[in-house]
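Reopening this ticket.

The earlier resolution said the output was attached, but the attachment link was broken on my side. Pasting everything inline this time so it's all in one place.
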Amino acid sequence: MRFALLIISLLLSQKLWSATCNDVTMPDSVNIKSKDLVLNGMGTRKATWLKVKVYVGGLYLSKKTTDADDILSQPYPKYLRMHFVRDVDGKKLKEGWVEGFEAAVEFNTRNMLQAQIDQFVGMMEDVNKNDEIVLTFTDKGVEVDIKNKQKGSIEGEKFSKALLSVWFVKARDEGLRDGLQGVEKCN
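Inline output:
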Protein backbone atom coordinates (compact mmCIF):
# COMPACT_ATOMS: atom_id res chain seq x y z
CA MET A 1 0.00 0.00 0.00
CA ARG A 2 2.81 2.42 0.90
CA PHE A 3 4.58 1.61 -2.36
CA ALA A 4 1.40 2.34 -4.35
CA LEU A 5 0.99 5.69 -2.57
CA LEU A 6 4.63 6.54 -3.28
CA ILE A 7 4.21 5.75 -6.99
CA ILE A 8 1.01 7.81 -7.20
CA SER A 9 2.61 10.78 -5.45
CA LEU A 10 5.66 10.63 -7.74
CA LEU A 11 3.46 10.55 -10.84
CA LEU A 12 1.37 13.46 -9.59
CA SER A 13 4.42 15.50 -8.61
CA GLN A 14 5.82 15.22 -12.15
CA LYS A 15 2.63 16.82 -13.46
CA LEU A 16 2.98 19.63 -10.91
CA TRP A 17 6.49 20.56 -12.10
CA SER A 18 6.06 20.22 -15.81
CA ALA A 19 3.89 21.41 -18.67
CA THR A 20 2.44 19.44 -21.56
CA CYS A 21 1.49 20.57 -25.04
CA ASN A 22 0.28 18.13 -27.71
CA ASP A 23 1.65 15.16 -25.76
CA VAL A 24 5.10 16.77 -25.32
CA THR A 25 6.11 17.39 -21.70
CA MET A 26 8.75 19.91 -20.66
CA PRO A 27 9.93 20.81 -17.15
CA ASP A 28 8.69 24.05 -15.55
CA SER A 29 12.29 25.13 -14.97
CA VAL A 30 15.84 24.34 -16.11
CA ASN A 31 19.31 25.34 -14.98
CA ILE A 32 21.35 26.74 -17.87
CA LYS A 33 24.81 28.25 -17.44
CA SER A 34 24.30 28.16 -13.64
CA LYS A 35 21.11 30.23 -13.96
CA ASP A 36 17.62 29.04 -13.10
CA LEU A 37 15.21 29.67 -15.96
CA VAL A 38 11.43 29.24 -15.94
CA LEU A 39 9.22 27.93 -18.71
CA ASN A 40 7.67 31.07 -20.17
CA GLY A 41 5.35 29.19 -22.51
CA MET A 42 4.87 26.38 -25.00
CA GLY A 43 3.33 26.32 -28.45
CA THR A 44 3.12 24.20 -31.56
CA ARG A 45 4.68 25.15 -34.90
CA LYS A 46 2.17 24.48 -37.63
CA ALA A 47 3.06 24.64 -41.32
CA THR A 48 1.13 24.95 -44.56
CA TRP A 49 -2.50 25.88 -44.96
CA LEU A 50 -3.35 22.42 -43.60
CA LYS A 51 -1.84 23.43 -40.22
CA VAL A 52 0.39 20.35 -40.04
CA LYS A 53 2.04 20.07 -36.61
CA VAL A 54 5.84 20.23 -36.94
CA TYR A 55 7.28 20.76 -33.45
CA VAL A 56 6.36 21.81 -29.94
CA GLY A 57 8.52 24.66 -28.70
CA GLY A 58 9.24 25.68 -25.14
CA LEU A 59 10.90 28.99 -24.20
CA TYR A 60 12.78 29.42 -20.91
CA LEU A 61 13.63 32.85 -19.49
CA SER A 62 14.89 34.33 -16.22
CA LYS A 63 11.36 35.62 -15.51
CA LYS A 64 7.98 35.05 -17.13
CA THR A 65 6.57 37.70 -19.44
CA THR A 66 3.92 37.98 -22.13
CA ASP A 67 5.66 40.90 -23.86
CA ALA A 68 7.78 40.14 -26.96
CA ASP A 69 10.02 43.19 -26.45
CA ASP A 70 10.68 42.07 -22.88
CA ILE A 71 11.56 38.57 -24.12
CA LEU A 72 14.09 40.00 -26.57
CA SER A 73 15.61 42.37 -23.99
CA GLN A 74 15.72 40.06 -20.94
CA PRO A 75 19.18 39.13 -19.70
CA TYR A 76 20.87 35.99 -20.99
CA PRO A 77 20.83 33.04 -20.96
CA LYS A 78 17.62 32.12 -22.73
CA TYR A 79 16.79 28.60 -23.81
CA LEU A 80 14.49 27.35 -26.56
CA ARG A 81 13.67 23.70 -27.02
CA MET A 82 11.99 22.36 -30.18
CA HIS A 83 10.60 18.83 -29.86
CA PHE A 84 9.65 17.52 -33.30
CA VAL A 85 6.34 15.69 -33.62
CA ARG A 86 7.01 14.60 -37.21
CA ASP A 87 9.96 13.89 -39.51
CA VAL A 88 11.34 16.96 -41.30
CA ASP A 89 14.01 16.83 -43.95
CA GLY A 90 17.07 19.05 -43.57
CA LYS A 91 16.38 20.95 -46.78
CA LYS A 92 12.93 21.99 -45.51
CA LEU A 93 14.43 23.08 -42.19
CA LYS A 94 17.02 25.21 -43.97
CA GLU A 95 14.37 26.82 -46.19
CA GLY A 96 12.22 27.53 -43.14
CA TRP A 97 15.05 29.27 -41.29
CA VAL A 98 15.93 31.41 -44.32
CA GLU A 99 12.27 32.47 -44.63
CA GLY A 100 12.11 33.17 -40.89
CA PHE A 101 15.17 35.45 -40.97
CA GLU A 102 13.84 37.25 -44.06
CA ALA A 103 10.52 37.95 -42.32
CA ALA A 104 11.87 38.95 -38.90
CA VAL A 105 15.20 40.69 -39.49
CA GLU A 106 15.51 43.89 -41.46
CA PHE A 107 17.53 43.81 -44.68
CA ASN A 108 20.61 45.77 -43.47
CA THR A 109 20.88 43.73 -40.28
CA ARG A 110 20.50 40.49 -42.25
CA ASN A 111 23.31 41.54 -44.59
CA MET A 112 25.54 42.35 -41.61
CA LEU A 113 24.78 38.95 -40.03
CA GLN A 114 24.75 36.88 -43.24
CA ALA A 115 27.86 34.85 -42.34
CA GLN A 116 26.34 33.85 -38.98
CA ILE A 117 22.95 33.12 -40.59
CA ASP A 118 24.65 30.90 -43.18
CA GLN A 119 26.61 29.11 -40.44
CA PHE A 120 23.42 28.48 -38.45
CA VAL A 121 21.36 27.33 -41.44
CA GLY A 122 24.24 25.06 -42.51
CA MET A 123 23.97 23.16 -39.21
CA MET A 124 20.46 21.96 -39.97
CA GLU A 125 19.95 18.31 -40.87
CA ASP A 126 17.13 15.79 -41.16
CA VAL A 127 15.18 15.37 -37.92
CA ASN A 128 12.80 12.59 -37.01
CA LYS A 129 9.79 12.46 -34.77
CA ASN A 130 10.91 12.93 -31.12
CA ASP A 131 14.25 14.52 -32.10
CA GLU A 132 15.03 17.92 -30.61
CA ILE A 133 16.79 21.09 -31.62
CA VAL A 134 17.89 23.06 -28.56
CA LEU A 135 19.13 26.64 -28.73
CA THR A 136 20.93 28.31 -25.84
CA PHE A 137 21.07 32.08 -26.26
CA THR A 138 23.91 33.90 -24.47
CA ASP A 139 25.46 37.35 -24.63
CA LYS A 140 28.22 35.75 -26.71
CA GLY A 141 25.96 34.08 -29.28
CA VAL A 142 23.92 30.90 -29.69
CA GLU A 143 24.82 27.30 -28.89
CA VAL A 144 23.09 24.76 -31.13
CA ASP A 145 22.32 21.17 -30.17
CA ILE A 146 20.56 18.83 -32.60
CA LYS A 147 19.54 15.30 -31.61
CA ASN A 148 21.46 15.57 -28.31
CA LYS A 149 24.70 16.47 -30.10
CA GLN A 150 26.39 19.84 -29.92
CA LYS A 151 26.56 21.13 -33.49
CA GLY A 152 28.48 24.27 -32.60
CA SER A 153 27.97 27.86 -31.64
CA ILE A 154 27.48 31.05 -33.59
CA GLU A 155 29.17 34.09 -32.12
CA GLY A 156 27.60 37.47 -31.65
CA GLU A 157 24.95 38.96 -29.39
CA LYS A 158 23.35 40.64 -32.43
CA PHE A 159 22.93 37.25 -34.06
CA SER A 160 21.51 35.84 -30.83
CA LYS A 161 18.84 38.57 -30.75
CA ALA A 162 18.14 38.23 -34.50
CA LEU A 163 17.59 34.47 -34.20
CA LEU A 164 15.28 34.84 -31.20
CA SER A 165 13.30 37.51 -33.06
CA VAL A 166 12.30 34.89 -35.68
CA TRP A 167 9.59 33.73 -33.26
CA PHE A 168 8.41 37.21 -32.22
CA VAL A 169 8.89 39.80 -34.99
CA LYS A 170 6.51 39.27 -37.92
CA ALA A 171 6.13 35.69 -36.73
CA ARG A 172 5.13 33.22 -39.44
CA ASP A 173 3.17 31.21 -36.88
CA GLU A 174 1.19 33.46 -34.54
CA GLY A 175 -0.11 30.53 -32.50
CA LEU A 176 3.44 29.40 -31.74
CA ARG A 177 4.45 32.98 -30.94
CA ASP A 178 1.53 33.40 -28.55
CA GLY A 179 2.30 30.08 -26.90
CA LEU A 180 5.99 30.91 -26.36
CA GLN A 181 4.98 34.32 -24.99
CA GLY A 182 2.65 32.64 -22.53
CA VAL A 183 -0.30 34.58 -23.98
CA GLU A 184 -2.09 31.36 -24.97
CA LYS A 185 -1.97 27.93 -23.47
CA CYS A 186 -0.94 25.14 -25.83
CA ASN A 187 -2.31 25.57 -29.35
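Reporter confirms the inline version is readable. The chain is about 35% helix and 35% strand. Residues 8-16 have pLDDT under 50 and may be disordered.
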